[in-house]
Amino acid sequence: xxxxxxxxxxxxxxxxxxxxxxxxxxxxxxxxxxxxxxxxxxxxxxxxxxxxxxxxxxxxxxxxxxxxxxxxxxxxxxxxxxxxxxxxxxxxxxxxxxxxxxxxxxxxxxxxxxxxxxxxxxxxxxxxxxxxxxxxxxxxxxxxxxxxxxxxxxxxxxxxxxxxxxxxxxxxxxxxxxxxxxxxxxxxxxxxxxxxxxxxxxxxxxxxxxxxxxxxxxxxxxxxxxxxxxxxxxxxxxxxxxxxxxxxxxxxxxxxxxxxxxxxxxxxxxxxxxxxxxxxxxxxxxxxxxxxxxxxxxxxxxxxxxxxxxxxxxxxxxxxxxxxxxxxxxxxxxxxxxxxxxxxxxxxxxxxxxxxxxxx
Length: 360
What we know:
Elements: E1 6-7, H1 18-26, H2 38-51, E2 55-59, H3 62-73, E3 79-84, H4 88-91, H5 96-99, E4 104-108, H6 118-124, E5 136-143, H7 156-168, E6 172-177, H8 180-187, H9 191-194, E7 200-204, E8 215-219, H10 221-233, H11 242-254, H12 259-273, E9 279-280, E10 290-295, H13 303-311, E11 315-316, E12 318-321, E13 324-328, H14 335-348, H15 354-357
Parallel strand pairs: 1-11, 3-4, 3-5, 5-6, 6-7
Antiparallel strand pairs: 2-8, 7-8, 9-10, 10-13, 12-13
Helix pairs in contact: 1-11, 2-11, 3-10, 12-14
C-alpha cells in the first residue's frame, strides 16, 4: 500500500492551506455580479496595483481569462490574433477564441525558449489594404512563462520590443501570464515592470502561488468594464466569490515568496535526472518550476510504463507523449520529496527496474 504521495503532475494540484481555509470561512461576502462583494474588490484592487494596471477582474479560470481578454480586444468577428503555434491559448483552450469569438488565430512558430521572432510577428500582421480578403489583425499574444517550452521566461526587453511593435501597427498586446510571478522571481524583475508593455494580462491564482480556484485579468478601466460584461455572458458571474478571493489573497501574501524555492527544487531534480541512464533532461533550460524528461532513443521502455512504475510508489508524473514526461514543482513539494522522486526514477531505469517489471 502506498503511504506517501508526491504529486508532480502540475502546480494546479495543491490543496488549500489551513490559513486559506480559515480566510474562506471568515470572508466577508456579497453579490459580486451586482458589484458588492468586498473581498473580491479587495483582491482585484490589490492585483491591479501589483500588476501596474488600472483595474482587475476575477474570473473562474485562466482559459476564461484569456478568452475574455481576446474577445475584448478583437470585438469584431473576423478579427485576427497573432500568437505562438505552441502556446497555451492555441493548443489547450479548446479553440475558444475561434469557436466562440469568431477570432482567427494567426500561428507563428515559437522558438525553443517560448519567444517568437520579432520579424516573423511583423510579417504576420495583415496589410489593411487587403481587408477584402484577409482577417483584420487586432492583437498579439505572448505567454510568460511559456509552459510548452518548459516554463521558460520571456525577458522584459523582449516583451517591450513586442509592445513597441504592437503600438507601431495600432495593435494591442495581451500576455497569458498564468505563471507570471514565476517569471518575475526567476528574472529578478518586478512583475509590474515585466508586463508594462501589455494592454492586458491574465494571471492564474491556482498555479504557482497555490490558490484553490481562479485567475485575474488586469488592464485599463475601460478594458475591465467590457471584460466584466463578457464574463457574465460566458457564465462567469459567480455571486459570493469573496470565499475564493479570500484564499487567493492568502496565496499572494504567503506563496509568492516560496517560488524561488520551487525553482531551486526543480533544478535539483533536473540535475539528478540528467545523470540517470536512459533519460535526457536539458537542465540548463530549467528556469522556473517545470522539468521535461525525455526517454533516450534505444531505451527499452516508454513513458507510460515509467509513469505507472512511479505511481505505484506514490509519485504522480504527467505523461506528455510516449517518450516524454513532465514534472512541476510547487510549494507543497519538499526537498525530501524531490530526493524520493529522484530515487524512484533511478530505480525505474535500472536494469532490474521497470524494464524487467513491465516485461520489456
